[in-house]
Amino acid sequence: MASFSSDVMMADFVDQFKIQYTSPHDVYSILQQYIVPMDELIQWSYPVPHTDFKMGLYSCVRCNKRLERDQNGYLMLNGKCQFHPGTFNTTVKGGKEIFDCCFQPVPCVESYGHVASEEDYRGLKFESFHRAKAKASDGTYRTPRFFSMDTERVTVQGEGRRGQRPFELVLVDGMTLEKELDTPVGRDPRTQVIDYCTRFHTYDQEEVDAMQEKGMPYHRLLNVLTKSDLLKQNDILIGHDLVGDLKSLKMFHFNIIDTSLLFREKYGRKLSLSQLVKEELGLEFKAHVAENDAYASLFLVIDLLKKEHGVE
C-alpha cells in the first residue's frame, strides 16, 4: 500500500515557482537540452513506433512469468502478477530469502497486469496510437510551449485485452502555471475495471467509479490532446516517468522531459517524485494525485532552470 504522508497541495506554491521575467522563447530554448533523446525513449520503454515487430516470448519483470504475444503484438496477459514492489534488498533467514518490503518470502502485492521485460512495447504495431498535430488549425506553426502532465490509472479489460486507462488527467501550462486540463476521465463502456490500483493512488473504489461516471469520454480527451490546438508536436511535456501515462492514453509524444531520469542518482537509480521534491525543494506533499504530481514535476524543472540557468 502506498504511503501518503502529507495533505499539502503543490498548487499552493505557484507564486514561488512562477517564471516572471524570462521569455517563453528563452525558457523553451533552455529546456531543449533536457529532452530525453529518442534512443533513451526506446530504452526506457516509451511508446515509439517501430517496424521491427516480432512474435516471441517475454518475461514479466515483476513476477518472472513467461508471457506471449498475439498476432498483433499485444501481450496475452494470462494469470495474476504476484510480486514484491520496488525492492531488491533481501536477507536470508531460516534458509529463506526475506524481502525488505514486507519481511516475508511470499509476494505481498497482487496485480491483474504484467510488465514485460523492458515493457517490450517496441514490438507493438501501435495502430491505435495518436500523435498531436504539427500545425495549428489555420495551418500555421505556433510558438512552442511546455506543459507538465500526470494521470492516475486503473487496469481494465475488454475485447480480449487488458491494459491501463486513465481516470484522472491534469495538464499544466509551464509559463502561466495554470491548469489547461483538469478532468476525470470516463470509462469505455466496452471495458470493465479489473484492478482499481488503489495501492498506487489516493482514491478508493467508490471515488474512482464516481470520477469515471462523470468524466470526459476517453476518445474526446484523446481528441483534445491530439487534434485540437492545445498540444502540438514541438511542445515539451514534463512529467515523472510518463511512460505509463502515454501508453494509457494511447498517445505518442517525443519531446519529453522525464524527472525520474533527469534527477537519477549517481549510479542510475530512480527516485520517487515525493523523495525528489523533499530533497530538491524541501517540500512534502500529497503524492499520487494528478494535480499534485503534475505541479511537482514542473516545479522540479523550474527550480533547476532558476538555479542552473538564471531563469527568473
Please explain how this structure is put together.
With 312 residues, the protein is an alpha+beta fold. It folds into 2 domains: 10-49 and 128-309, Nucleotidyltransferase, domain 5 (2-Layer Sandwich); 57-123, no CATH class. It contains 9 helices and 15 strands. It has helices at 14-17, 24-31, 38-43, 205-214, 218-226, 243-249, 259-262, 273-281, 290-309; strands at 57-59, 66-69, 75-76, 81-83, 90-93, 96-99, 109-111, 130-131, 146-158, 161-173, 179-184, 192-195, 236-239, 251-252, 256-258. Helix 8 (273-281) runs parallel beside helix 9 (290-309). The radius of gyration is 20 Å and the shape is globular.
Q: What is the percentage of strand-forming residues?
A: 15-25%
Report the CATH superfamily of the largest domain: Ribonuclease H-like superfamily/Ribonuclease H
Reported for the largest beta sheet, the result is:
6 strands, mixed
Beta-strand segment tally: 15
Shape: globular
Contiguous low-pLDDT stretches (5 residues minimum) are: 1-5, 51-56, 118-124
Radius of gyration (CA) equals 20 Å
First-to-last CA distance: 39 Å
Query: From the coordinates shown, what is the CATH architecture of the largest domain?
Result: 2-Layer Sandwich
User: What is the top-level CATH class of the largest domain?
Assistant: Alpha Beta
Number of helices: 9
**Residues in helix, %:** 10-25%
CATH topology of the largest domain: Nucleotidyltransferase, domain 5
Following the backbone from N to C, one meets helices and strands in this order, namely: HHHEEEEEEEEEEEEHHEHEEHHH
